[in-house]
Write a structure and sequence with these properties.
- The protein is an alpha/beta fold.
- It has a single domain, classed as Alkaline Phosphatase, subunit A.
- The protein contains 12 helices and 10 strands.
- The strands form 2 sheets. The protein has an 8-stranded mixed β-sheet with strand order 6-5-7-3-8-9-4-10, sandwiched between helices. The protein has a two-stranded antiparallel ribbon with strand order 1-2.
- The protein is globular, with a radius of gyration of 33 Å.
Length: 350
């Protein structure tokens, strides 16, 4: 090689693209020393009627693996029924509630008697939403004085912080729950009733319309809703008469509408729903609560969904278990500050 060609050789050898090409083994001539072995085609010898052999190349396609199946998406709906005494609930014609009982675990119990903590909606819903006892969330009555929602936020807010991709929603006729921060501002979708004046039951009718629309048409992973007609009727008429029974049966009809809205979702076949129903307190026979009698402290928690025992009835209901069950059913580790456990761990009598 002449001297004039050497600079060209140095430039070619120094080319990064060529260096990469050579490193891949593609710079060798086929059969040259150091060249990689080439793949050999599949060859078959086929005999013709004249017994003259000839070569036939058969190309075997490489199978393409199927994509892994998409796991079902967990979803949770929490329904809060204000002031529902469980014995009156079981005595009513609550068809949809009983369907849910057969499909899940029904726990009964009593609010813990705590100094200065009344059997009222403020402490009850604060415990349900935060998943911690009144000694932590600080709410002892309906004034919400001493609340610690910044330190112990509701489960929707916790989930937004842990997994912002989740779609969260809260719908309630008791606007104060949102105004006071029991349901935080991070929740994706809020709705509450501003009806004034209104008849008993008007707020719930508005709320159920909003929630069923949301469930049918929107992306939602975890939702909380609160209905109050049962409590309003109990305060006016007591819990032993037909008015309270009709209020319970009305709410039961709302449960049926919620079930229908979930089934009507376009993505329902790829979802796995958990439904939790609970209450904040009971009532005296004549109506009213806030004291420490067993009827005022009567509560229940009903949950149905994947991994939750079916047709089980047991004692030991605790409001702090609602938030823990939400986390467990969504497959998210429980925050250490929660006081409850998942209802999926309960194995009682059928």
């Amino acid at each position: 090689m002449s001297r004039s060609s050497r600079p060209w050789r140095r430039a070619l050898t120094a080319s990064p693209a060529l260096a990469l090409l050579l490193a891949s083994g593609c710079g060798h001539a086929p059969g040259a020393p150091g060249a990689p072995a080439l793949p050999r085609p599949s060859v078959a010898v086929v005999s013709t009627p004249s017994s003259t052999p000839y070569m036939s190349m058969t190309l075997v396609p490489t199978p393409v693996p199927s994509p892994p199946p998409v796991p079902p998406q967990p979803k949770v709906l929490v329904v809060g029924l204000d002031g529902v005494r469980r014995d009156r609930l079981l005595a009513a014609r609550a068809v949809h509630f009983r369907q849910l009982m057969r499909a899940g675990t029904f726990l009964t119990g009593q609010l813990e008697v705590l100094k200065k903590v009344r059997s009222s909606s403020g402490p009850g819903w604060s415990t349900v939403l935060t998943g911690v006892a009144p000694g932590k969330h600080g709410v002892h009555n309906n004034s919400f004085e001493g609340r610690q929602f910044t330190k112990y936020p509701d489960f929707l807010t916790r989930l937004e912080r842990i997994r912002p991709s989740l779609h969260t929603a809260a719908v309630t006729g008791w606007r104060y729950l949102m105004d006071i921060g029991a349901v935080g501002a991070l929740v994706d979708w809020h709705a509450t009733s501003h009806l004034k004046p209104y008849k008993i039951g008007d707020k719930d009718a508005f709320i159920i319309d909003r929630m069923t629309d949301l469930l049918r048409t929107s992306q939602v992973d975890i939702a909380f809703m609160h209905l109050e007609v049962t409590d309003a009727v109990a305060h006016r008429s007591g819990v032993l008469g037909p008015a309270y029974r009709r209020a319970i049966e009305t709410v039961d009809g709302y449960l049926g509408r919620l079930f229908g809205a979930i089934r009507a979702r376009r993505t329902f076949a790829a979802e796995r729903w958990t439904i939790i129903v609970t209450t904040d307190h009971g009532h005296r026979d004549e109506g009213g609560h806030g004291g420490v009698s067993p009827k005022e402290r009567s509560i229940f928690v009903l949950a149905a969904g994947p991994g939750i025992a079916q047709g089980v009835r047991s004692g030991g209901a605790r409001q702090v278990d609602v938030a823990a069950t939400v986390f467990a059913q969504l497959g998210i580790p429980l925050p250490g500050s929660l006081d409850g456990r998942s209802i999926s761990a309960v194995r009682g009598e059928k």
